[in-house]
Amino acid sequence: MCKCKNIKIGSYDRQTSMKDPFNTRNRNGGWVCVDTCLVQEIAELWYQGIKTVESCCGHNKTKGYIMVLREDYDRMIGLGYKPDNEWNGNSEKLAIFYPKIGTGWRYPETYQPYQMPIF
């Protein structure tokens, strides 16, 4: 589970601004808000070339999700992500996966995390 306490779904509390390398033409010049507990996970997906659309940690109230372009579906499976098969049958362009946060999943001991550049 994430560390959210008393955070309403849809609020911007406990979020961090990040520059999405694949979304530079949005109205904010590529800057997006990401739930703080998902920042490292989203940064890693971007580093792997995965194009995220939106995400939510669930704020300890509901299941979290990471939405990606359908073209990245197989790569997400290869990275060990579990798809939301009920939702995924409804879209030809997008796919939803459950975040790894709170699942007990850990990076391997030899893993070197991607360091986000400071803008």
SSE blueprint and pairings:
Layout lengths: L14 E5 L11 E5 L3 H9 L4 E5 L8 E5 L3 H6 L3 E2 L1 H4 L5 E5 L21
Antiparallel strand pairs: 1-2, 3-4, 4-6, 5-6
Describe what this molecule looks like in 3D.
- This protein is α+β, with helices and mostly antiparallel strands and 119 residues long.
- A hairpin with an 8-residue loop joins strand 3 and strand 4.
- The strands form 2 sheets. A 4-stranded antiparallel sheet has the order 3-4-6-5.
- 16% of the residues lie in helices and 23% in strands.
- The chain has a domain at 18-98.
- The chain starts with 14 loop residues before the first strand and ends in a 21-residue tail after the last strand.
Query: Overall 3D geometry?
Result: globular
Largest sheet: 4 strands, antiparallel
Individual helix count: 3
What is the helix fraction of residues, given as a range? 10-25%
Strand order of the largest sheet: 3-4-6-5
Q: What does the radius of gyration come to?
A: 14 Å
Uncertain runs: none
Cα end-to-end separation: 29 Å
Tally of strands: 6
Beta-strand residue percentage: 15-25%
Order of helices and strands: EEHEEHEHE
